[in-house]
Amino acid sequence: MKVAICPGSFDPVTLGHLDIITRAAKLFDKIYVAVLENSSKTPLFSVDKRMDLLRRCLTDLPNVEVITFSGFLVDCAKEYDAVAIVKGLRAVTDFEYEFQMALTNKKLNPQLETLFLNTSAQYMYLSSSIVKEVGRNGGDISDFVHPAVVEDIKKAFEKKEI
Ligand code: PNS
User: Which domains does the chain have, with CATH numbers?
Assistant: First the structure.
């Protein structure tokens, strides 16, 4: 069974993330979507909330499971028997950082491959930061996030729960 890991902050999950996960799920037998728990970035949504939002968007993909991790991604990949890390790559913006991470992960575990799927054209501009920026200011986020979680994310901004 070929297993891959799709890691990220998912703060919150966007349609761009879901596009990558959906495409990765067609290439591997099992995908673990790994939500980073401790990061130097301070997330807006708690790890439980981020996992809950992801799970609600991924109900149609039986070979995808949402997990959390802290520490090194390569250790998480090993624990779950993943042979590859799958990440989305937007034109230009992501390249340098993602390349650096891929090479560092390769140093930490030479057996583990990093595969990049190009972001689909319609999501090239999209990021969690855009969702937060628009959501915080009361804008319409329905073009950015899955319909199953639009209301929940909007409410969270309104109530300032996050
Ligand atoms: O969605 P993001 O914020 O781009 O995801 C970044 C993530 C979670 C993939 C990256 O920060 C990560 O793998 N962090 C875990 C620590 C680690 O293993 N770093 C790489 C070697 S220093």
Answer: 3-125 (3.40.50.620)
